[in-house]
Amino acid sequence: MSTIVIGLSMGMLLFLLAAGLTLIFGMLRVINFAHGSLYMLGAYLSFQMVNLTGSFWVGLAVAPMIAAIVGALMERIALRPVYDRDHVYQLLLTFGFILVLDEAVRIIWGLEYKQMYPPELFSGAIEMFGSSVPSYRLFIIGFGAAISAALFFMLDRSRYGMIIRAASGDPEMARTLGINVSLVRTGVFSFGAGLAALGGAAAGPLFPIELGMGFNIIIDSFIVVIIGGLGNIRGAVMAALLIGMTRALGYSYAPSWVDFLTFILLIGTLILRPEGLFSRKGRTA
Amino acid sequence: MNSTAEAKHVLRCEDIEVSYGAFKAVTNVTYKFKPGLLYGLIGPNGAGKTTLMNALSGRARISKGRVFLNDQEITKQSPHARTWAGLGRSFQITQIFAEMTVFENLRLAAQAHRFRLQPFWRPVGKFKEIANDAEKVLSEIGLESFGHVNAGSLSHGDQRALEIGLALLSEPKVLLLDEPLAGVGHDVGEKAVELIRRVSQGRTVLLIEHNMDVVMEISDEIIVMLAGEILASGNAETIKQDPRVRTAYLGEDE
Amino acid sequence: MNSQRLMALLVAIIISAPLLLPDGQGIGLVNAILIWSIFVIGFDLVFGVAGMLSFGHAAFFGVGAYTLSLLTMRMGWEFIPSLGAAGVVGGALALVFSYFAIRVSGLFFALLTLALSQLIYIMAGTKLRMLTGGVDGIAGVPRPDLFGIDFYDDGNYYFFLLALFILALLISGLIRISPLGQALKAIKSNEVRAEQIGFNVQRLRRSVFTISGVFAGVSGGLLASLIFYVGPQMLHWTTSGDVVIMVLLGGMGTLFGPILGVAIFEFMREWLSTQTSHWYGILGLIFIICTIGMPKGIAGLITQLWDRIMPGGKS
Amino acid sequence: MNIVKSTILGAACAALIGGAGAFPAYADEPEAFKIGAVLPFSGPYGIIGKGMKQGAQLAIEMRGGKVLGKPVEVTWEDSETKPQPAVQKATRLISSGAQMIFGAASSASTAALQGITEQRKIPLLVTISADDKITRANGYHYTFRTSNTLGMEIRMAMEYTKAAGLKKIYAVGADYAVTRDGLEAYSAAAKEAGIEIIGVDFAPLGNRDYSVIIDKIAKTDADGVVLIVTGSDGVTFLKQAGQAGLGKTKTLFGPVLQDEVLAAAVGPDAVGAASGVRYHYSVDNPANKAFVEAYRAKFNEWPDSFAGEAFDGMSWFLDIVDGTGSWDREKWVTAFEGSVRENSVEGRKEMRACDHQALQVGLWGVVEKGEAPYPDLRMKITNIFQPEALFPECAE
Predict the structure, then answer these.
(1) Chosen from C174, C177, C193 to mutate, greatest number of chain B CBs within 10 A
(2) pLDDT exceeds 60 at position C88
(3) What is the pLDDT of residues B12-31, one digit of tens each?
(4) A176 near B CB under 8 A
(5) Which chain C residues are Cβ-neighbours of B104 within 8 angstroms?
(6) Which of the four CATH numbers 3.40.640.10, 3.40.50.2300, 1.10.606.20, 3.40.50.300 does domain D151-277+363-390 have?
(7) What is the pLDDT of residue B74?
(8) Which of A117, D69, D314, D387 is surrounded by the most beta carbons within 10 Å?
(9) By the CB < 8 Å criterion, does A85 face chain C?
(10) Which residues contact residue C1 at a Cβ distance below 8 angstroms, ignoring those fewer than 6 apart?
(11) Global pTM?
(12) If DSSP codes are grouped into helix, strand and coil, which group holds residue A281?
């Protein structure tokens, strides 16, 4: 049972990582390789906020905002001029972002590892199903669920969601309807960057904050996004939970095969249902 | 050896159906195409004309039924295999190699037809036979003077002519033309009609066209589709008289 | 085509640098450039000519390196047959990949090849460690032993690599202008039309993917012998990323552009890194600026400059 | 379509130019003692490169910046923690006259460097990479390692297990060859000592989440957990173990689990974790005191183990070179073999001739809270194991 709780928390963490990536893809058709670097930036920023204010919550709130500004700048300065070109160029640009962001973090915070702790409220462990589950894990589950609910609400129910869907579905049409498509693009990229940083801030107390932390996480996020279906938030939640559970069960029975299992799941998905396991649309030519 | 069969029907559809999920874009289509005739395919938008053409050329998956080309079943074959079997087509939205010259476009079609495995040990220019094929078609479609022009910079009408030329190079027995006159100006249109007439000599042509005057004028037989099914077929006079066609058209259009 | 010639000249100057400079300076750098060039020459057939963005070529590169290392070190094979085998194995793996990956196109193709090559990376690092030496790799990969020449001397090895490089360049140049190359360009230009005029698109894609796998395998084997070492790092997705960057930087779809891309990338790595420890960030900035400002890479820039200097000298 | 022609043209051009060029012989009268340092300065391993550079710099400075009467010139190159750049840069350093190569950090890069240094007959000084294969009997003639091997660290872990009276051990390793071998050796020794291994898990290298494994371990009656993981993997484990309270019931230890850099990344949850220590500034001998003082004066921080090991190896090597009074590199190699350094910063070290591995004491410590001027979390050296228990006969 405790494995399931941990699996849930892994899944929710993965969702926080992947949500921004899938959102950006859905809107801009850009695979943002720099997502991992934004995640790392989020963790460092949040560390910095905690150091300045002593409050985990301030870090969790402020880090995504700063990262969102960085994201908006990235989109405005670099991505905008290349939208009408092949997707390859956007992808290459995000490669460049990785190098620049990593370097910026290195210059600002240096090479040393940084650390963060769970907030006072969630620092202990709770006895559950015969094992002690860190309460921060429970927080992650709740927080992830809340964020996903908020995202659903925003995308499905609110005016913003409609605008975003209109702008991504048919930019020309949206333009004639008076929607500022380029502003929407900046907004979505910036929001996605903020989500990445939110993931970083939330992950801070669980992992070492270091320069390489964005490097592996990007592959994890890709896996979730692909299995969930590119651009599909609902699918991303399901995929993140699926991967979280697979990993948790993998760790409890055959830890050395965990990565292997995840990749088999991924490749199977790409071969059998390239549009994603949790995509509702049928496959059309 | 199959000349007798060929004499009867060159293309045969047996109860074919194309569906996207629950939606049936084409259904219950059974039809036999005779060699050497020009068929006009008409019907209101969304009637399934292009889908039928896609099903015949292999771009849309046939969910039920069978298609035969010269008595050889092609239902499951991929588009290139159908081209090899003698089926050429043009598209509603012009599909050409825009950044290559007109001659290169045609030469590609020629080499696709000549070689099953594309040679890689000699420059393409050394293969004289494909250049000759391309030159021949170049003049057939009346673009002799545009051989070295980038295909993308041709006028719309010339692009449509080039598309027909590309299809011709595979020496098709059946040619599917999806609205070759759409968007073509009136004066150029006459040239295009002339081209269609010319290429239909000795082969079966299936033509989707919205201009009723043209269709009625050049078709040997007309097929009317509505809601994915064949509503009626026959020569121009029969179709004009058919009450079902009249209601369908008048109900749709006005 | 005059700018083509100018680029050929530039490439010639770069690869003959060790002969021009005193003390054979830069020979290590040029050797690496030659090897990576063989890789990108093949990769660009897939990426620049056929228009398939593959993020899986690190797998063929790395597998070629392991093949050469294992055959020479464990099986006692001669170098040349081992190098041939590296190409064959690289090509074979590419063929296997293509059966999975060519069913999907565009970004899915990129992601699927990425995933497949990461799987190979994980396998090499953990499960196949008996064969691959795991994360630490295998040190002591040999160089050829031919005609009594000491190829352990980088100056001599340079000529060996140069010969292979020119061979690769010729093969790739010929493929580009052969019917096969034209057919691939047609697929890139308009897949629907290419299929409809009778090209077997899947098979053509598979064959070019396989050919580029051979190039990658050979160059992987050569890199292992150049640095006397093979490790799973060569299989990592960032290696594939580097190659994409090199090709785009140089100019995709051109014969010499990608080679210039390699030269610049490797030169940056060598020179910029001695100037500042922040060189990675600077490299990133350069990439961003180049991508925005030079959509056709160095090759495009050269063509543009050439047309300006020599107006009317167009094709 | 002149591509083929252009190619031939280019090739001909290259050949022509090639024919005109020649290879002038390298003039062999060095103006300076050139050291080529290939260390990771970019990427996540940058911290190791930084410490090693500072340590080596100080070693050169403290001897007046001279060897064999000539100034020492070090060229610092970034290995990016990748073998290819490491080798490429070492090649260039050697061709521009480097007398020795210093580096690299990761065992993979070091192994790659060994190929080139053997080939060029240039001494390679290793002060951090721990893979046992780097120094093996009758292996690499030009490689010398003055720092620890993983093998000796695992033996230290075993010695510690016995000394701490732990009876039931759960083992967690990163999934790669060296750690698997290490854990095998540990298990064999445990069997002999009557210590029970009640569970073994290998997690992927660069593992992101240990919580399930931690939960599994918490439910066993193990009294100790041996962690054969390094760097950020160890940090991740200890952070997550701390949140689950694993350290309250079980002793967490490992051969290279913690140092002060890593402990700072874990935070208070690191307290109590025990680990092998490569070098420590608290080691009480005159050489170390002098070094620590000079280091703090120059860099205003405590030397980490990367700096200490680099300082020690570099000073030792340069002393040997100076002692030969010769520029003949073969003489240096011969002189280094079997040499004894009584006054190293870690005590007595002896360079074993058969495999070029320095025999030395093993330091073992535990993380505790520190007070100024020390870092918040510091290693307290608890055990010093003698070389006899740590190094097997030179026979592998």
Answers:
(1) C193
(2) yes
(3) 888 888 888 778 888 888 88
(4) no
(5) 182
(6) 3.40.50.2300
(7) 84
(8) D314
(9) yes
(10) C315, D1, D2, D6
(11) 0.85
(12) coil
